[in-house]
Design a protein that fits this description.
This protein is an all-alpha fold. It folds into two domains: about 140 residues, no CATH class; about 50 residues, no CATH class. Helices cover about 70% and strands about 5% of the residues. A two-stranded antiparallel sheet has the order 1-2. A hairpin with a 2-residue loop joins strand 1 and strand 2. It is elongated and about 80 Å long. The termini are far apart.
Length: about 230
């Protein structure tokens, strides 16, 4: 059987085509059973290997790619779904790249794993394997850009938090309070009502308290008891 697997992969590589696979798409349940049947006993127990790639390339087809992607959120089938997607060679490259770029179903690291499997699978043509390596480089670049963007957003949020906190302290000093713009006082008000759970007041008492906080903090009105 092992010789047959190797022969099939070698013939396909020489002919420049991927292993033949069924055309009709299957249900998630059926794909799950196919994936689990492709496991082999290895040094760490039942798992997936090159034989799995060959078997999966014959058992699933390009029409199954959307369903295989949807199985990536199943922790039991996640690794097997990676192998199943990789078994589809060139047909899976763009769907994997697009799904990862949109942060849907799986991460950029999952995409890297799938593309690495394609790049190393002899059942794929050399052109497809090269495309997989190039796409992996692209995915890594997208991931770095996203990480930089998230880091910048975190820094911006931290700076905003520090600024609002500083303005909140100024609200306690009548002299410094007058230096704040209405927009700055509104930021402090929103932060304060959120802190005390009054973002969406329900009872009349809560609504009255939120209104009093707004008039005092934003409109800079003195409490009624102090104005008499």
């Amino acid at each position: 059987m092992l010789l047959q697997y190797r022969s099939a992969a070698l013939v396909c590589a020489l002919l420049g085509v991927a292993l033949t696979a069924p055309a009709a798409s299957r249900s998630r349940a059926e794909l799950g059973r196919i994936i689990l049947r492709s496991r082999h006993l290895g040094a760490h127990g039942m798992g997936y290997n090159d034989h799995s790639l060959i078997e999966l390339s014959q058992a699933v087809g390009p029409d199954d790619i959307p369903s295989l992607i949807s199985l990536m959120d199943n922790q039991v089938l996640r690794v097997g779904a990676q192998f199943a997607l990789a078994s589809q060679c060139g047909a899976a490259i763009e769907p994997v790249r697009e799904t990862a770029a949109q942060n849907q179903k799986f991460s950029m690291l999952d995409a890297d794993d799938i593309l690495d499997l394609i790049a190393g699978f002899e059942g794929c043509t050399e052109e497809m394997r090269t495309q997989a390596r190039e796409t992996r480089t692209e995915v890594d670049s997208i991931r770095r850009n996203q990480q930089s963007k998230r880091a910048a957003e975190v820094q911006e949020k931290a700076a905003d938090d520090a600024r609002i906190q500083k303005n909140a302290l100024k609200m306690n000093d009548p002299g410094q309070r007058k230096t704040l713009t209405r927009a700055e006082r509104l930021e402090v008000f929103r932060r304060s009502v959120k802190a005390v759970g009054l973002e969406h007041p329900q009872t009349p008492a809560q609504k009255a308290l939120a209104d009093r906080m707004y008039r005092t903090m934003v409109l800079d009105e003195l409490p009624a008891s102090n104005s008499q």
